[in-house]
Amino acid sequence: MSQLFSPATLRGLHLRNRAVVAPMCQYSAKDGFANDWHLVHLGRFAIGGFGLVILEAAGVTPEARISYADLGLWQDEHIAPLSRIVDFLHSQGAAAGIQLAHAGRKASTPVTWHDELIKTDAGKIEAGYEQWTPVGPSAVAHNADPAFTTPTALDQAGIDGVIQAFVAAAIRAEKAGFDTVEIHAAHGYLLNQFLSPLANSRTDQYGGSRENRMRLPLQVVEAVRAVWPADKPLLVRISVSDNRPDGWQPEDSVVLSQELKARGVDAVHCSSGGFDGGVINSVANYQVPFSKTVRDGAGIPTIAVGLISTPEEAEAILADGAGDFVALARGALDDPNWAVHARLALDGANYDLWPDPTKRVESMDRSLKRHSFAK
Ligand SMILES: Cc1cc2nc3c(=O)[nH]c(=O)nc-3n(C[C@H](O)[C@H](O)[C@H](O)COP(=O)(O)O)c2cc1C
């Protein structure tokens, strides 16, 4: 059997395979609530054979949202609709994760496809439109684009509040039945803003040295790990590199990942970028070397992500020891059945991942002598 489709275990969580759906904001929630869009969008990945489906960045406070249409986990009322999604993912054999997120200075940005709708008061109500002043490590805007407001620099009480908000959101995620949570410390959002010298110019214990800049992300991880069940894995997503010579570097990520491992993090999801001026050539598998660097350097399981598209590429990443899991975002949108197709491609005519009501595809495939990825 291929490595991609060999089962994996993280703490008490058993995954049917190593194909992961990466978190993808849908900008389709109102007041943070998941709805039928989220159920169907995510449900198709579970039907399509993925081992783990990670729900999009969910704001740990209302101000933590990238936009007013993000998912949220800041109140108990958010639990029930998320629980419905978790139950469905489980019913189809997939594990369920959710990304706990704070956008920091990149919060309160527009939802571009609502531009027309929010021109009227009625439209604003329909969309759930809101705007607010974001917070950040320092009072410096992400860039000059008017979409990004200059943030208020967090004081100690604000920092304590952020930690508590992550904790409360993790407790709600547990109540919703999630198997894992992923702390979002990537893509230039709040925890990444603290890590990176490109956004953090503080002079207190949260700024300056790398050790100080790592303090808040590590405090969040420690506090979440303390309330997250011991038999459930904790994931952290990082930008392994800011892709700028004056920014956070892969060697910083190795040190950070060692600290994450020491605090009970089970896997690091290795992305990159998120700050202005970061340059990387987005070719196939472009971030896989980051995953290998972290995995080798910190001795921690990693999730590789970034333009991974063919089953053979995914298998090679695992076989080469460049990652323990492979995640797809756009590739999963393009083909929600990617995992069942990859199973056929890598392991022969094997339809075990197809749910019973869809199994007739097997006879169809045989008679038509075709399936995706067939040569
Ligand atoms: C529609 C969309 C929404 C995304 N939302 C998130 C998100 O909520 N959290 C996150 O960490 N990354 C997000 N990403 C980044 C993806 O998780 C992934 O890292 C990136 O797209 C690279 O993988 P891919 O080449 O397979 O798409 C998003 C990407 C897309 C395409």
Number of helices: 12
Kindly report the name of the CATH homologous superfamily. Answer: Aldolase class I
How is the biggest beta sheet arranged?
8 strands, parallel, barrel
Query: What structural class should be given to the helix and strand makeup?
Result: alpha/beta
What is the mean pLDDT? 96
| Amount of beta strand | 5-15%
Reading off the top of the CATH hierarchy, the class is best stated as: Alpha Beta
The CATH architecture assignment turns out to be: Alpha-Beta Barrel
**How are the strands ordered across the major sheet?**
3-4-6-9-10-11-12-13
Structure notes:
This protein has a single domain, classed as Aldolase class I (TIM Barrel). The protein is built from 12 helices and 13 strands. Strands 3-4-6-9-10-11-12-13 form an 8-stranded parallel beta barrel, surrounded by 7 helices. Strands 1-2 form a two-stranded antiparallel sheet. A two-stranded parallel ribbon has the order 7-8. β3, α1 and β4 form a beta-alpha-beta unit. α1 packs parallel to α2. The chain is globular, with a radius of gyration of 20 Å. The mean pLDDT is 96.
Topology:
Blueprint: E1 8-10, E2 13-15, E3 19-21, H1 36-47, E4 52-59, E5 71-72, H2 79-91, E6 95-101, H3 121-127, E7 135-136, E8 152-153, H4 156-176, E9 180-185, H5 190-195, H6 210-227, E10 234-239, H7 250-262, E11 267-271, H8 288-298, E12 302-305, H9 311-319, E13 325-328, H10 330-334, H11 338-347, H12 361-368
Parallel strand pairs: 3-4, 3-13, 4-5, 4-6, 6-9, 7-8, 9-10, 10-11, 11-12, 12-13
Antiparallel strand pairs: 1-2
Helix pairs in contact: 1-2, 2-4, 4-6, 6-7, 7-8
Bound molecules: flavin mononucleotide (FMN).
The site of flavin mononucleotide has 19 residues, from strand 4 and helix 10.
